[in-house]
Amino acid sequence: MRDLLTRSTAGLYRSELARTSTIVARRVAAADQPFSGASRAELQRSVDAVGLDGAGVGTSAAIDEIDELFLEHAVWFHHPAYAAHLNCPVAVPAVAAEAVLAAVNTSVDTYDQSTVGTLMERRLLSWITARAGFTHGDGVFTSGGTQSNLHALFLAREAALGVHEAPRRDILPRLVIFATASSHFSVGKSALLLGLADDAVIAVDDDGDGRMDPVALRGAIAATRAVGRLPMAVVATAGTTDRGVIDPLAGIADACDDDGVWLHVDAAYGCGLLVSPSRRHLLDGIQRARSVTVDFHKSFFQPVSSSAVLVREPIDLAAGAWYADYLNPLENAEPNQVDASLQTTRRFDALKLWVTLRALGADRVGELFDAVIDLAAETHDEVASDPELELVGRTQLSTVLFRVCPAGTDAATQDGLVAGVRRVLFESGRALVAKTVIDGRPCLKLTLLNPETTIDDVRAILAMVKDAAAALAGMSGDLESDLGDAAFAGAEASA
User: Fold this and answer.
1) According to the model, what pLDDT value does residue 331 have?
2) Which residues contact 32 (CB under 8 A, 6 or more apart)?
3) Who has the most CB within 10 Å: 18, 122, 305, 487?
4) How far apart are CA 483 and CA 419, in angstroms?
5) What is the C-alpha separation between 265 and 470, in angstroms, rounded?
6) CA distances from 113 to 18, 100, 192 (A)
7) 166, 244, 172: which is closest to 211 by C-alpha?
8) What is the DSSP letter of 397?
9) Residue 176 and residue 264: Cα distance in Å, rounded?
10) Are 274 and 295 in contact (CB under 8 A)?
11) CB neighbours (10 Å) of residue 46?
């Protein structure tokens, strides 16, 4: 039996892991653009050509196949021309810890499956809640910001239901959540999953730059109560996905305290500020939240997945507790994390962060996050000074919103260029940027999360954007679909 990792195959595991890591390291070192540029049809044919029902080919052959099928066409977040989404290059010690996680295969749902792993996760949660200003806080690791937000809003829902004597079915349709239009889509999705009304998420006015207006929040809460609805939670965002701005947490906390409303802070993006040597003050007021989302696989440079939901009062986590005789019976005094988690089987993702903090130190992680924020600020200036580009506001974190404005084009044409430019760059594989909509108009977005990316690297991306836009602007017809060789030539000319 040579198929499973056991005592008898430890040597085989060692040799195959060494060989695999060599293959991956070679790909990482050799990547000269973030994506191969292969078409979806080409990739689909390659995937469909693999037979999954036949006899096995052996580990070495299977890994060789993955080298050509997956690694050849992977999207490389470590490449300086990757600037699309909230994906980061990962800390080396965390990658090493991933190998440990996969081999040991710990599940941290109950103590008897994880022992010291549970205690290490509990220690990390104590550390990060203290960083957030929760004196006696608690929490649990999750799969990502979406699950963390869902979990927090589930706890808020249960807390809101607990103060009313009416049946659950009568209260649920009256509950509302307050957030801005810039809040993460998972807020609305959570409202759906939690059985709230279709109009349960109330959009609060912002300051014009995407930050929640505390005065408008107070008015929205009062108006909601006046028509018989019940405030369930306010979701403030510490790092909006597009604008990269931070809601005024202290002012929002004042409004929540005055009205007795649960305050949740979605800091999935901005949580790296908790270890920033110079920008921690941007999160002032977060300690007054009832719950907080943090995503270590964004601004702590951890491999996916690594997130957590934090609570100021540990008792709040009890709302989700569920007991089974075969898993975590009530009389069991062990620290079973399944009592707090929405998941049962759960990876020991805390190990990655543990090893990273021990290897690099918290201050160094914060310096890395500061570096990408500094780069974004420099890029803002670069875009603002370029007559062919238009800066769409300044962010507090590491996103850059802009439009490209070829000479002689009007606003409507520039809007039409956004999707085409993004598509040209993606299909060439030379650079990846994102597109979004701000105040009703489309724009391009750079998300800078690679501390090794330089301003010269960004200038190269912007040059490709401008060349692609110039080529597209000279074409007739539908800019979204009529992408010919001239557009690709424009993108390639600047590489």
Assistant:
1) 81
2) none
3) 487
4) 11
5) 42
6) 28, 15, 34
7) 244
8) S
9) 13
10) no
11) 15
Task: Identify each DSSP E strand in 29-174 by its residue range.
Answer: 82-83, 138-142
The alpha helices in 51-198, defined as continuous H runs, are: 59-69, 92-104, 111-114, 116-131, 145-162, 168-171, 186-193
Cis peptide before 494 (omega within 30 of 0): no
Question: How many CA atoms, within 13 angstroms, populate the side-chain half-sphere of residue 401?
Answer: 21
Pairing of strands 389-391, 399-404: antiparallel
CB atoms within 10 A of CB 486: 13
SS3 393: coil
Number of Cβ within 10 Å of residue 283's Cβ equals 23
User: How many whole angstroms separate alpha carbon 91 and alpha carbon 385?
Assistant: 34
Q: What is the rounded distance in angstroms from the CA atom of residue 189 to the CA atom of residue 169?
A: 20
Low-confidence residues in the chain, pLDDT < 70: 1, 476-495
Distance CA 280, CA 473 (A): 43
CB atoms within 10 A of CB 345: 11
pLDDT at 1: 64
Strand partners, 389: 404
Give the chain's radius of gyration (CA, Å). 24
The DSSP annotation for 78-97 comes to TSTTEESSS-----HHHHHH
- Whole-angstrom CA distances from 441 to 402, 403, 413 are 11, 10, 12
Decide: 417 and 435 in contact? Cβ < 8 Å.
no
Q: Which helix (H) or strand (E) holds 380?
A: helix 362-384
Question: Two tokens at 447?
Answer: 């998300």
For 275-334, give the DSSP string. Answer: G-TTTGGGGTTGGG-SEEEEEHHHHT-PPS--EEEEESSGGGGGGG----TTT--TT--S
Q: Which two tokens stand for residue 372?
A: 């990408």
Any idea what the Cα angle at residue 485 is, between residues 408 and 481, rounded to 5°?
A: 70
Q: Kindly tell me the sign of the dihedral angle through the C-alpha atoms of 31, 33, 39, 40.
A: positive
Q: What is the pTM of this model?
A: 0.94
Question: What is the rounded distance in angstroms from the CA atom of residue 269 to the CA atom of residue 448?
Answer: 12
CB 158 within 8 A of CB 316: no
Q: What are phi and psi of 488, to 5 degrees?
A: -65, -35
Q: What is the pLDDT of residue 482?
A: 43
DSSP string for residues in 215-237? HHHHHHHHHHHHTT-EEEEEEEE
Query: Cα-flanking dihedrals φ and ψ of residue 406, to 5°?
Result: -55, 150
**Residue 118 carries which side chain, given as an amino acid letter?**
T
* Sequence letter at residue 472: L
- SS3 for 339? helix
Find residue 231's DSSP bridge partners.
176
- Give the separation between CA 113 and CA 121, rounded to whole angstroms: 13
